[in-house]
Design goal:
CATH superfamily of the largest domain: Tetrapyrrole methylase, N-terminal domain
Number of helices: 7
Shape: elongated
Helix content: 10-25%
Strand order of the largest sheet: 3-2-4-1-5
Structural class: alpha/beta
């Protein structure tokens, strides 16, 4: 049960009665079908319209029945083929026609996935929206490489940050986290600006030998891990194809000591 203590204005109440189709914002995790939640799997199989990002794996797309209409709405780096506003309108248009609409998003819809923007847009216009959590790369990426974000004696806390702000601006607010002891920092969307991260971290006194791991394409056949230090971050990033997460902290020292992700091919039923 949810208790709301502060008063709510009439404008904040949403009405779902005027719209026919239901919208699902579906977190699809890293791309491995076996890491989907049961609910995400069911919605992918049952939705009448599916809109999907460029990071949704072929294995997950293969779950979509042939009769389902699929629309690619990916926004690859430096090549945004469709605006967020257009995506919002597409979802609403199909819901208006009475279709059940699944918007597939890599990772979790609410962790740097713009899911909140889409949900607010739809709710404010009276659509019925269900958000289905997915496993974020911020935790599953390191885990696939055998690197735990927290571990006794290595890290008692961890942070998840984006290296980019709106319009591609560099986010430097999180850099002081690298100076915390007993802490792990997981950085998303930082691969292309590794040099900027390194030099900015140097400028505030972060040790050059801070352990760093780059984990790319986690849970996929091309998964790769590179273990380095802050000093070697820029050079290491040049040899990696994204998507990738960057892990800073002493937990990186556990690489090679813990199990790494073991992928199994699963038949599509």
């Amino acid at each position: 049960m949810t208790k709301i203590l502060q008063p709510i204005s009439a404008e904040s109440h949403y009405s779902f009665s005027a719209r026919k189709g239901k919208v699902y914002l579906v977190g699809c995790g890293l791309g491995d079908v076996e890491q989907l939640t049961l609910k995400a799997y069911r919605i992918i199989r049952e939705a009448q319209i599916v809109l999907y990002d460029n990071l949704i794996s072929k294995e997950i797309l293969d779950l979509i029945p042939p009769e389902t209409r699929k629309l690619y709405v990916g926004k690859p780096k430096k090549s945004h083929s469709i605006t967020q506003e257009r995506i919002n309108h597409l979802i609403a248009d199909y819901a208006d026609q009475g279709y059940s609409v699944a918007r597939l998003k890599s990772g979790d819809p609410y962790i740097f996935g713009r899911g909140a923007e889409e949900a607010l847009y739809l709710l404010e216009r009276g659509y019925n929206v269900d958000v289905i959590a997915g496993i974020s790369s911020s935790v599953s990426g390191p885990a696939c490489a055998g690197i735990p974000p927290t571990a006794r004696g290595y890290a008692a806390s961890f942070s998840v940050v984006s290296a980019h702000l709106k319009e591609g601006k560099f986010n430097a607010d999180w850099l002081p986290l690298l100076k915390l002891s007993n802490h792990t920092t997981v950085v998303l969307m930082g691969l292309s600006i590794a040099r900027k991260i390194k030099t900015s971290a140097y400028a505030i006194g972060v040790p050059h030998n801070l352990p760093v791991a780059i984990v790319s394409n986690a849970s996929r056949p091309e998964q790769e891990s590179i273990i380095t230090t802050l000093a070697g971050l820029e050079r290491a990033a040049k040899n990696v194809d994204g998507p990738a997460v960057i892990v800073f902290g002493n937990v990186v020292k556990l690489y090679g000591k813990l199990p790494q992700y073991q992928r199994q091919e699963v038949p599509i039923i």
